[in-house]
Amino acid sequence: MPHYRNSSLPIEVSEFLLNCFVNSPSWQLWLSLPLSLLFLLAMGANVTLLITICLEASLHEPLYYLISLLSLLDIVLCLTVIPKVLAIFWFDLRSISFSACFFQMFIMNNFLPMESCTFLVMAYDRYMAICKPLHYPSIITDQFVAKAVVFILARNTFLTAPIPIFSARLHYCGKNIIENCICANLSVSKLSCDSVVLNQIYQLIVAWTLLGSDLILIFLSYIFIFQVVLRLKAKRAATKALSTCGSHFILILFFSTILLVFVFTHMAKKKVSPDIPVLLNVLHHVIPAALNPIVYGVRTQEIKQGIWKLLRKGR
Q1: Domain ranges of the chain
Q2: Is 27:275 a contact under the CB 8 Å cutoff?
Q3: Which stretch of DSSP H or E encloses residue 52?
Q4: Each residue of 209-246: pLDDT tens digit?
């Protein structure tokens, strides 16, 4: 609750309260079990994938380094969001400090676009492997991956860091109850006593610039890939190419679909329950993280073989 210096001079709040599912409190009960299972699955699967790629020498290739980066991003996103949500569900620990709230906001706003950008680099990797196979070994190298990682970190940190900074610099002198399970920028900034127009406009521009451009380039890459695959005369080569790209495309499609659904439900919040965007926001931090390593493990033969080799060594 807000603290007061005296009856007429309020001081700024030092903590927030996360108020999940105001209109549907029963959701916390039935959502806690599948959410905890998804969290354990995401953590276990991503850690297994990271260990496999790290220890198996045959997987020390550019594509698998990018998959490792994706797993690292998923792990950080899950650890930043889901444990706090489960603590609210199970123990009613709704309070979150001022600094912790804006740190969570920074991670969410930074790492989700990083994940989108990683998908873009992976799509470019598949484009080069299938459309320009002769140039692939000379272009997609370890140095290329290192430069791509630096680009992903620099681009997204530079453009998204102002979002939590703008929010943290606002004055919070009244309400401190966030109508959300997480410290989403729009949910937090609307509690401020100051104008938040600049904050909202900047987030909208950055979100559509980063995620929108990534998705357009990703789908263009796969259009070119499918055109080349359809022209392949050897059925086995075409099947292998489709299988290689299939897992990537499925995950990218799911990532973009759930994100677009969240955006549109948030825009149409007068027509849908305000708890729906909150639910989608929470799920978007755990479902892709649980699916990514499973799809790669099941559909990528090299990773599957690497996991079996490690299991045999363990025995």
Answers
A1: 15-314
A2: yes
A3: helix 27-55
A4: 998 899 899 989 988 988 888 787 666 666 666 666 77
**Which pairs from 129-133 meet CB under 8 Å and 24+ separation?**
129/244, 130/225, 130/228, 130/229, 130/241, 130/244, 130/245, 131/224, 131/225, 131/228
DSSP single-letter state for residue 11: P
Q: What is the C-alpha separation between 16 and 191, in angstroms, rounded?
A: 10
Q: Are 188 and 100 in contact, with CB atoms under 8 Å apart? A: no
User: Given 3-state DSSP classes, what are the helix, strand and coil percentages for the chain, each rounded to the nearest 5?
Assistant: 75, 5, 20
Residue 62 and residue 128 in contact, taking contact as beta carbons nearer than 8 Å: no
State the residue for tokens 């290689």. 244
Task: Name the 3-class secondary structure at 147.
Answer: helix
Give the pLDDT confidence score for residue 277 in this predicted structure.
83
Give CA–CA dist 247/242, Å, rounded: 9
Average pLDDT over residues 25-48: 91
DSSP for 67-119, written as a single string: HHHHHHHHHHHHHHHHHHHHHHHHH---EEEHHHHHHHHHHHHHHHHHHHHHH
Q: What is the three-class DSSP state of 15?
A: strand
pTM reported for the whole predicted model: 0.89
The residue among 252 and 93 whose pLDDT is bigger is: 93
Among the listed residues 13, 28, 8, the one whose alpha carbon sits nearest the alpha carbon of residue 188: 13
Q: Tell me, which fold does domain 15-314 have in CATH? A: Rhopdopsin 7-helix transmembrane proteins (1.20.1070)
pLDDT digits (tens, 9 = 90+) for 75-105: 999 999 999 999 999 998 999 999 999 999 9
Could you tell me if 280 and 262 are in contact, meaning their C-beta atoms sit under 8 angstroms apart? yes
